[in-house]
Amino acid sequence: MKVVTYNVNGIRSALGKNWLSWLQAVDADVVCLQEIKAHPDQLTDLFLLEHMGYEHYWYPAQKKGYSGTAILTRKSPVKVEYGCGHCDYDFEGRIIRADFEGFSVMSTYFPSGSSGDLRQEFKYRFLDDFQGYVDTLKSERPNLIISGDYNICHTAADIHNPKANANSSGFLPQEREWMDNFVNSGFTDSFRHFNSEPHNYTWWSYRAGARKKNLGWRIDYNMVSTSLEPALKRAAILCDAIHSDHCPVLLELDDSKLS
């Protein structure tokens, strides 16, 4: 089974860059989208997703043109959960979850704190509340795949210039400590499970030719419950996909070990 996470930075913009052809070629079973920045009624190509065999579930922000998540799946879920029950985050469409027999896939869009202190504090509250939400959820759904844009580089190997970015939102000590604690609470960074090399990034600034120079940040993850480690087959950053300032991240799992 192939799972892909992709912050598309506006699904309408991505569709205008031949995103559907890319989606058909990558042939994923479950696709987690972030920052869709649109409501389904603003999209005219949804029937093409259905022709490709996808059911599609959208959780846009209440504020139009902002945030939002979605899940596309060729496997019918037994349940889709919209939000986490916290109005501040649900207003921004930050979490959607599809439950399947034996496992669940979540598409998440963590807040950025780069716009100032108020949003950084909002981000810290989100991190605390998200950990509590996941801790409770694991008692009911222990096999979790939590995919999305975490807006945090975990280690120095995940950012092109750790010294210069030591005080940048997304690489702050408190954020990195949260990632340590999240992983230690029972999760595996699936990309690092297979690849420990630096200079593997998933986001690049549009400024100063950062992507061409590979001056990036790895902030998009497929985190999996440690109970699912035996099912892991492959993980890859698909940096050739250029529909966004992010690129997709692929995870392949052995279906026979998911139930």
Keywords:
alpha+beta; 6-stranded mixed β-sheet; 7 helices; 25% helix; 26% strand; globular
pLDDT averaged residue by residue:
97
- Helical amount among residues, as a percent range? 10-25%
Strand content: 25-35%
Could you give the distance between the termini?
Answer: 12 Å
Structural class determined from secondary elements? alpha+beta
Largest sheet: 6 strands, mixed
Q: What letter string, H or E per element, gives the SSE order?
A: EHHEHEEEHEEHEHEHEEEEE
Overall shape: it is globular
Number of distinct helices: 7
| Oligomer designation | single chain
What are the low-pLDDT stretches, counting only 5+ consecutive residues below 50? none
What spatial order of strands do you see in the largest sheet?
3-4-2-1-14-13
Radius of gyration: 17 Å
Number of strands: 14
Overview in brief:
The chain is α+β, with helices and mostly antiparallel strands and 259 residues long. Helix content is 25%, strand content 26%.
